[in-house]
Batch of 2 targets.
Target 1
Amino acid sequence: MEFAKAIYGLKLDDQYWGLYLVSILILFYCAFRWKSVGGDGQTARMMNEKNVGVTDDRKVSSRLLFITATYCILSFFPFFLGKLYDLTAGIFPESYRYEELSHIWLYPLILPLALGIAVSFASKVEDVQLSVKPDGKTDGKEKSLYDRLLPAFLIGILILVFCWAGNPLTIFRDAKETVKENGYGAFFTKEESGAFDLILSDADVIGAGDITIWGSREMMAKSRTYDARLMPVYGKDIVIHPEKYSQEIETFAANYDLYEAKADHVGSKADAIGVIANTPNLYEGVACDYVVIYDPASQGADVDADGIFSETGYRKVGQSGRYLIYSRIL
Amino acid sequence: MTAVGIILSIIWMAVLPFFGGCILLPFFRKQEEKASVAFLLGCGIALHYAAYEFLTLAGKPLHLGMRKVSLIFAAGAVLLAGCGLRMLIKNRSSVRNWEWKKLLKDPCFYPAAGLVIWHVLAILIFAVPDPDDAFYSSLSSMSYAYDLLLEKDAYIGLMNQAIQKRYAFSALPIYQAGLSWLSGGLHHLVITHNLFPLVYIPLGYGLYTDIVRIWIRQREDRLLSRDEKDDSKDFASSIDETTLCVRVLLTLAVLHTVGDYFIFSQEAYLMTRMWQGKGLFAAIGIPLLFLAVHYAKRRGIIGYAMVLVTMIAIVFMGGTGLFLAPVELMLLQTAMWLMSKEKKKDIKYILLAIVCCLPELVLAVWMMR
């Protein structure tokens, strides 16, 4: 299973984009080395009989695969714009060119362009190849454009692969870590579903219908998906576009970030927990029934979170793994 | 219970759409090209999407909930499948047979099929919610729990704000909730993250193969037309398309295996983001539109009715397609017109394409007002 995950992990990080080039290499190998397409040479015979100037099936397949390959390489173009952004980010830190240039809206422009260039390439290659006569004799131009380009192309690809993708051992080791960090394997972790179940059963006991919760981004993002009764006080958008929402909601998001140390913070973890506990009391406009925080111990702090929350008027509902759950419904 | 839900869901997602798509078979009866299973399934899905989109947009002012809309949709889908089944029995010869003997003899078939199966398995095994579920799947669970139709914004969490305009026309999350409801309460995350890839990844490869097949035929026809136009038909039928298609399929499968270099890559849309509107549009919508336009030319207005249905289905998939699809269609149609030998006669196809863009244009104006 670990090996399978590692293989899938290759797809998770863009540093492995060099493998894309490996696949192009395999593609070109197929295009140049497979000799027969029809398997029985039927196409070649038919074309020779009709004197259309193509001597064997290989040329038909090569042309088609050449088009496909060129198309694939050019469709890779938007990614290079992203890399360009990475390189120039230090010079123009405020730039949003990455989003502008690499956005899907470019596809109507990129794809026809890619196809057009690919087809024009293929036509040229075909012209060179047609200099080989139907009877198999040549007019002295035996080395086609393919043959001239192939060695340089393969060497170039190999250099790029080793420059950008690293050696295979590094790739597999890093991929395993990536899979681990992303937590692949289950929709909800046990501690997440345990926390949601605790909240829902508590709400059932006190007869609450829809309930609002406030917690980490990850937890709130998943809460509505777990059960529609769980309503996060803010969702994904607030993190990306806080200016579009109310000051209160923005403050909620910023205050939680203080605790998770995702924002600049000069105070202690105890101060941050105090801020979290007080925020719903200060902003009554944002209904907040349950607050979920990571256990301070998991954040590397020795703080009595239960004491702080009970002093501020909360009731402890329970704990699920790293999650501590408090309710404002007494 | 989960197994029953999965079977029901597959029936709604794949079996009924395939039979629904078979209503197009009479239009392939006298044609040289036969309809592939992937194309029929794609058309059936487009018909379902278009119907659900229409019902959702009409249901909002009429205050129909998700359940009533899904019920009407289900009745229509069964009726359509019944008609399609009748057409399939009558026109069985219009469906392209899979050339298993050739496929099994081809050494490239095994790695290609293995990679496609691996892609599906990888998505099934390693599926996990991502931050985008905070919108798509949350909208589905809200719709399922409260019987809503694109009314409240799931993105900000609380149900106190109306949905943003750019999401108000895409019925995909409601359809996913509807599938969940019609499948006896199967969780919509299972439908979106597991069953969608299970059906749509093979469908995507099928559609790409169809495009390659068309490409091969056109190239060879052009090559032959230099000398003997009359015999081109005989020649075209003799080319071993299956073998060529398998090799291109292998190429695509290899590229997709290591293609997650970017969140807007083809692999990301076909596999990782398949359950989202953007993913469906890029992986299924665009190739289906291409095929619909290709087949439409020889079938006139009826053919363009299928293009229109595909365009409405693309609106169903999301706001991205709403703006991109007309551009794609007009580019494609203009290119076909420029390459045509009968430019005066073929100008009507450009006009028909403009008519097909009308749903997008109307909704875009409505969205921006």
Target 2
Amino acid sequence: MAVQTSPATQQTVVVSTDWAAQHLNDPSVRIVEVDVDTKAYSEGHVPNAVGWAWDTQLCDTLRRDIIPRPKFEQLMGQAGIDADSTVVLYGDNNNWFAAWAFWQLKLYGHRDVRLMNGGRKKWIAESRELTTDTPKISPKSYKAKDPDVSLRAFLSEVQKASAERTAHLVDVRSPQEFTGEILAPPGLPETCQRGGHIPGARNIPWGKACNEDGTFKSPEELKTLYGGAGITGEKPVIAYCRIGERSSHTWFVLKYLLGYKNVKNYDGSWTEWGNLVAAPVEKP
Amino acid sequence: MPKPEDYSARKTDLAGWPVTITTYRLGAVYKTTIDNTDPGAWVVKAEGATKQEAEAKALREATALLEQVKRNKPPTGCTSVPGF
């Protein structure tokens, strides 16, 4: 069954693996896999799920930006999604890039978007069916709305938030990245010139919002986690990480599971800030 | 349609970094993923005819990668939220 989120949002944004399994052939539901590992979908995916690649299909491939609106409309339409479709996103790494896709679907105003709780990891751990068959899709016409900029933070706003403390900055990277001990997660390429964090940011790694099986912690636990660090929702919040996908996960938690009104994702994140000439950096 | 079987996940240290080793069998193939636990990004993936073969290959590749991670001066403190 679908999990009801906080009363503040009154939206159903998380579905269980059971719910997804019961809606594999529901024509009003389109399940989409988005992974960090873009080869994972082709190795086996939820039956009838479409696969999107974050690095080619969910971004502007010329300049660094989110997916352009015409390309987004085409992507949605080709996946058989229209304005009334329920889109269920899931992926590896506890839904990192599924959350990134969720954020972009909300930016472009799609009404009913949900995450499959636990993502690909839970589906596999539960020994559910996988297929390598690509679903046959009847394309639909999709019209996106103008991007909702209230969900996205750009550099100038983050600079103001850091200098004037106008918003809480939540750095969701690992403690070692936050302190500058390492420049990228272990085993991943380094993509910034300096280590550390944006002055004033608090470090609450994204994974603290998850249980061992990849599902989200309860609203009470989440409230304790973020509230205990002073992130109560009374002040605007800007989440960031390295390239914006882990922070999409935290953005989702704060906005939809805790119901905070003013939460933005800074997708420029540390690969923008940590490469800026003369930008202030705090360590540790 | 095949179902993943024999799912297992365990944590250990490789080259000084905590990692999670996840393995399952899909049909006749064992698939292993090693991620860096925090933040949880996958580092290597490998396949084999047995669990031991898949994990051994993944461990070799992951160790080689993680040994190359450069650590800067150790931090003097950390304001990360404890617990959880």
